Amino acid sequence: MIVYNLGIMLEILTDADYEKFRKVIYDESGITFSATNRSILDSRIKEQLKNKNLSTPAEYYNLVMSNPEEMKIMLDSVTTNLTRFFRNQPHFDAFVNYVIPHVVENKKAAGGDRTIRIWSAGCSTGEEPYTIAMIMKEICPMGFNFQITASDISMKCLMTAQKGFYADAKVDGIPADYLSKYFTKVDGGYQMKKEIMDTIRFDYHNLRNDSGARNLDVIFCRNVLIYFDEEAQLAVINRFWNSMAAKGFLFIGHSESLFGMNTKFEFLKTEWACLYHKNT
């Protein structure tokens, strides 16, 4: 079956096309497309055919397989990026009231290292790491400092995040005192202030691979694992374990769980939210 769009003949993915794209996307990123979300992949591939002025999925597949940059663009196009500032407030309540106090206590007991290292994995357009940075500016104890790394597989999202500009509608949910303290009102929205932007290092990263980071105290990877099958999820979780300092903490999405997975993380239920702990 074919459809016509702006004079370009576009083929709807055949079963064979779908399997080829599904497999390469899984192999390269761990993202899984099933029968239930096949239509999403279909629409994203058709959009890329239009953008590249190509006629068939086979042409686009050959382009992707022969060009690493086109592979990145395709992986960018098939990801879903939904986020907002202070998303899932109970997680941040647990971060403020439980996680950071324990991280600080553990570092004091160990002596020496006074840097709190945090990774926002799958940071999308930056709302999560900027939320973390604003909170840390408020609560980081005297004598300590913090470093935040924010990563995503979408270069487009990372470019938006690095600019630190958010339209008026995007700042809903930010407390008024944070908004006035850490943003500057500009035409059409708000610009994050440099003092916050300078605390974050944005980095392209595919969770299929080891980030190389070590001694991380806190990892946020929320609403990302749902796009992976169990095998890919376990591989990602194990890499998080290896990246994390002793007694580190892991936040995943409220609809995600490590239940039934053979991981070393311990489930931790706090007064505010549930998370996971590297208890070594």
User: What gross morphology would you assign?
Assistant: globular
Would you report the number of β strands?
12
- The spatial strand order of the largest sheet comes to 8-4-3-9-10-12-11
SS element count, helices? 10
**Which sheet architecture does the biggest sheet show?**
7 strands, mixed
| Helix coverage percent | 40-55%
Q: Spans with pLDDT under 50 lasting ≥5 residues?
A: 1-11
What's the Cα radius of gyration? 21 Å
CA-to-CA gap between the ends? 57 Å
Q: What is the typical, i.e. mean, pLDDT?
A: 91
Order of helices and strands: EEHHHHHEHEHEHEEHEEHEEE
Question: Explain this structure to me?
Answer:
Residues 1-11 have low confidence and may be disordered. The chain is built from 10 helices and 12 strands. By secondary structure, the chain is α/β, with parallel strands linked by helices.
Task: Briefly summarize what is shown.
With 280 residues, the protein is α/β, with parallel strands linked by helices.
